[in-house]
Amino acid sequence: MENHKEIVICMGSSCFARGNKNYVEIIKKYLNEHNLTNKITFKGQLCSDNCSKGPVIQIGDTEYFEIDEQKLKRILHENFA
Ligand code: FES
């Protein structure tokens, strides 16, 4: 299992309004349920000028765009399951 990555979620107003507001809780819950809270750094960042492709989430070196709930769960599973 990959367990030393960092999750960075865009908290800029565009991404926040378009879903990241809720995805913060989904990610927190996922990390809790999988005992990853001590292994993964989870933090927010400001707008990275990718609003048109948002909501944006970064895991490790990979940026993910146009996140929806289903895609978010798949990405978490791919990276951490
Ligand atoms: S608000 Fe997220 S990229 Fe601009």
Q: How would you spell out the order of helices and strands?
A: EHEEEH
Average pLDDT taken over every residue: 95
First-last Cα distance: 7 Å
Unreliable spans are none
Lay out the secondary structure.
Elements: E1 6-10, H1 13-33, E2 41-45, E3 57-59, E4 62-64, H2 69-80
Parallel strand pairs: 1-2
Antiparallel strand pairs: 1-3, 3-4
Helix pairs in contact: 1-2
Care to describe what's here?
With 81 residues, this protein is α+β, with helices and mostly antiparallel strands. It has one domain (10-80). The chain has helices spanning 13-33, 69-80, and strands at 6-10, 41-45, 57-59, 62-64. Strands 2-1-3-4 form a four-stranded mixed beta sheet. Strand 1 (6-10), helix 1 (13-33) and strand 2 (41-45) form a beta-alpha-beta unit. Helix 1 packs across helix 2 (69-80). The longest helix has 21 residues, at 13-33. It is globular. The chain starts with 5 loop residues before the first strand and ends with a helix. The mean pLDDT is 95. Bound molecules: FE2/S2 (inorganic) cluster. FE2/S2 (inorganic) cluster binds at residues 10, 12-15, 47-48, 50-51, 54, 56.
Considering the chains and any ligands shown, give keywords for the structure.
4-stranded mixed sheet; 4 strands; alpha+beta; 2 helices; binds FE2/S2 (inorganic) cluster; 81 residues
